[in-house]
Amino acid sequence: MNDIRLLKDQQRDKHPGFDSYIECSTRSLFTGLATFSLGFAGVYFLQQVGQRYLPYTKKGNILVAAIVSTVASYKVTSDRMRACQARWMAVEDKYSVLQETLDTAAPEGVASKEVGTIGMLFRAVDLRNGGETVRQHYIKTNPTDNLLKWQQLTQFCFYRRKYTDSSKYKGGKVAGQRHRAINNGPEDTDESCSEESIERSELIDDREYDSVASSAMHVTKRIQNVQHVAIIQPYIKWGPRKSTTKPELLQQEAEALVRSLPKWNIELSLKIPVDTLDKRQLFGTGKLEELKEMLRARQEAGTPLTCVFISKGTLSYGQKHTLEQAFRLPVMDRYSIVVQILRLHAVSMEAKLQVALAELPYIWSQVKDQEGSSKGSGRIFLSDSQRQMLQLRERKLRHELAMIRSHRELLRNRRRQKNFPVVAVVGYTNAGKTSLIKALTEEASLQPRDQLFATLDVTAHAGRLPCKLEVLYMDTVGFMADIPTGLIECFVATLEDAMLADVIVHVQDLAHENCTEQKAHVERTLRTLMRNGERSLAPERIINVGNKVDLVEDRQEVITGAVSETPNGGRLHLVSSKTLHGIHELLLEVERKVLQVTGRQRMVIKVPMGGQEVAWLYKNAAVTETAADPANAERLLVSAVITEAKLQQFRHLFVRNRATG
Ligand SMILES: Nc1nc2c(ncn2[C@@H]2O[C@H](COP(=O)(O)OP(=O)(O)OP(=O)(O)O)[C@@H](O)[C@H]2O)c(=O)[nH]1
Ligand SMILES: [Mg+2]
Q: How do residues 340-353 score in pLDDT, each as one tens digit?
């Protein structure tokens, strides 16, 4: 008995529509039974009424009634059962939109657990007829897709299974190369196929890992399907754990996170007061019932919800499980939504590896919660080999990242040798960091986007200061409050460059209602980062910039408020990266700070025409202008920005030589 219950629980976990399917089939059977009884009684009665015209015996009457009612009951039951199956299929489809995993118990033949993209289709239906049902279902649910596409997809599956069967963890470079070629399409096959890059791609494109990750977080690599999301922002109304940020603003941020994912539509957005964020079902029983009812009513009214986003940093396994059972929809938290955004926006290999590493603490915490809270059944329960896979993956990711970082260190040293002053641009996500760098450097290729975490790679962009000195602006990953530290820690290393920069520009979004809180959060994080780093957050290295001033021009109180919040008498530079208002003044300030912090000075040096001095200056200082000396035709006036050390060297090499010579 207990075994059956356990089996049922497992099925429930794997198939969210299981319960309603059982319910629906039971109803169908009873309806069939009722049809039989009523049909039998009805036909028998009619025969009795028409006895005069139907001259056969009572036994004959019973036989006719039994045949007619059996046929009717069979028809009703089978129609209803088919409807139940169709409903289950639809529910499975909705659920599996977020989970591309495939039942490991899939029968031999078409399916393999390596199949990713169409895993959800395989999962939803019986495969025993070689995928024919799948094909029918696919064509029915995707009327715009043709058979060709279906064939391509199945081929893709077969190839993937064929070439990825030799486990990536056992080596097998050739298999890996093919796997990668298939995975990324032909355009990627030209890429360098060095051992390192292949190994890194294998780490990123690991189907076995993907199935664990998608069941723990509901995240996927390829966001192809439209999602209909209900956002619920819980907030503590009273007490010491009450957030300093207004719930409306938290809710807005949650909405902005969802809007950062293409094809994700917000169908419903609510903020709900709670006593604590730690309760197993998060909300009070009455509230939970109300929410369940509301979501159900929405679904019935034709709003096709596909997931619920509870805007809390991390939900424990127990909370997630309870809420998923209650809502009958996948539930995501801030961590998993941010991971989904990061997966989407990660372009460089370093960013991809970092996102991959950022996912692991979450999966481990869910496994730990699950083991602590239940008997161990359920979706993300890990087998021993999956645990080993995760541990090995973590080690490999750390190793690869360390390699990339040592390369980054090399680049940093090279930059130092070249003596480029570095200006890091930091700030809350979406504050306009990329836009500001675009305005400062006039680099057309930069693409600011109205999305959270649009920039995930630290990139350097050359720009010229008004004195013609060349500087490097570093674009960085944005900060965000209420993101678990485990997630951001992985990106901290990319911020190392920013922390070691000569000058730090802190961009603030003046048009954002929560500007003050955002600023405080960035400063807190910077202070923590600096504590671990080599340099301090001295005020002379910081330039505070109030961006998007064009959006608040008519709201003087916003500007006055922001200016008065700037600490230690520091100035807040009001700019608009869009209209370029205030950009020139900001450049002058960057120049002033760069010269001050790096000990550089602007000077005009008289050197002999055609001498070694000019070449030396070009190599060791930033020459901004040269002109003939009006007082002496044999001399040249060289305007340069030069460090104190280089100036001493120049004096030592040329001035003393000249004096002695
Ligand atoms: N009106 C106005 N919009 C701006 C200004 N600066 C940036 N934006 C807009 O703000 C949005 C975010 O700009 P980004 O430069 O991508 O912001 P970011 O800080 O780099 O964002 P992340 O990389 O996602 O952290 C874009 O839609 C920009 O067009 C400005 O001065 N005025
Ligand atoms: Mg950016």
A: 888 888 878 888 88
Residue 17: half-sphere exposure toward Cβ, Cα within 13 Å: 20
**Cα–ligand 2 centroid distance for 627 (angstroms):** 41
252: CA distance to ligand 1 center in Å?
Answer: 17
CA distance 30 to 24: 10
For domain 419-598, give the CATH number: 3.40.50.300
Cα dihedral value 576, 577, 581, 587, nearest 10: 120
Mutate to test the pocket of ligand 1, among 425, 430, 476, 551 (most ligand atoms within 8 A of CB): 430
- Would you call 622 exposed, middle or buried from its count of C-beta atoms within 10 A (0-12, 13-18, 19+)? buried
**First vs last Cα of the chain: how many Å apart?**
105
Instruction: Check: pTM over 0.90? Answer yes or no.
Output: no
Q: Residues 36, 66: contact at Cβ < 8 Å?
A: no
Site residues for ligand 1, CB cut-off 6 Å:
427, 429-435, 448-455, 478, 547-548, 550-551, 576-578
pLDDT at 326 over 80: yes
The residues, ordered by sequence, that sit 6+ positions from 230 with a Cβ below 8 Å of its Cβ are: 267, 268, 269, 270, 295, 298, 305, 307, 308, 309, 329
Parallel, antiparallel, or unpaired for β 307-310 and 227-236?
Answer: parallel
* C-alpha pair distances (Å), 195 with each of 198, 356, 395, 399: 5, 19, 17, 14
- Are the C-beta atoms of residues 269 and 255 closer than 8 Å to each other? yes
Q: What is the CATH number of domain 601-658?
A: 3.30.70
Q: Among 434, 443, 475, which is best to mutate for testing ligand 1, by the most ligand atoms less than 8 A from CB?
A: 434
Query: What residue ranges of the chain are covered by domains with CATH 3.30.70?
Result: 601-658
Which part of the chain is CATH 3.40.50.11060? 209-368+382-394
pLDDT in tens, 523-535: 888 887 776 655 6
Q: At what angle do helices 2-14 and 18-49 cross, to 10 degrees?
A: 110
CA distance 306 to 426: 35
Q: How far is CA 41 from CA 30, 46, 56, 517, in A?
A: 16, 9, 17, 75
Fold that domain 209-368+382-394 belongs to in CATH: Rossmann fold (3.40.50)
Sheet bearing 600-608, strands edge to edge: 600-608, 635-643, 622-628
541-574 pLDDT, tens digit per residue, is 899 999 999 998 777 777 777 776 666 556 889 9
CA geometry: angle 513, 515, 516, nearest 5 deg = 120
